[in-house]
Amino acid sequence: MVLDTGPVDHRYLYGGTVERMERGWTGGIDGNGGTVGWTITDWERELGVVALWNDAPLGAEAVRVAWRTEERDVPVRDGVYLVTWWRVPDPKDSWPRVTAFRLGGRWVPAADR
After folding, report:
1. Cα separation of 27 and 25, whole Å?
2. Nearest to 41 by CA among 67, 15, 20
3. What is the three-state SS of the chain?
4. For residue 45, what pLDDT is reported?
5. Amino acid 70: pLDDT
6. Minimal CA–CA distance to 30: which of 58, 66, 11, 5?
7. Is residue 85 within 8 Å of 50, Cβ to Cβ?
């Protein structure tokens, strides 16, 4: 989940993951602003969820994210993106990264904005 916890005139993102345990819900990764992390959801198989979120540039329609051998295009909603991968092993030091944003119908490399 990603929440805007700031006042009306100032966006302040807070995102996090949770896991349902026998005794209820417990927190996973969480953070302010943009963040990426992994939360274990299947202890037996050592699998979890990777989540990446942040603000997008003004007018962005979508974000392109690369991770391992995969590239995903995900819509931006209200200036924010959230990208997840489910049932994946701990990524260790290999994390998803934003490579581009679609602005005005064309892809702009993230480094160029």
Report:
1. 7
2. 20
3. CEEECCCCCCCCEEEEEEEEECCEEEEEEEEECCEEEEEEEECCCCEEEEEEEEECCCCEEEEEEEECCEEEEEECECCEEEEEEEEEECCCCCCCEEEEEEECCEEEEHHHC
4. 96
5. 95
6. 5
7. yes
> Per-residue confidence of the chain (113 residues) as pLDDT tens digits?
777 777 888 887 877 777 777 888 877 777 776 778 888 888 899 999 999 999 999 999 999 999 999 999 999 999 999 999 999 999 988 999 999 999 999 999 998 65
- CA end-to-end distance (rounded Å), the chain: 26
Distance of CA 72 to the CA centre of its chain: 12
Q: How far apart are CA 111 and CA 113, in angstroms?
A: 6
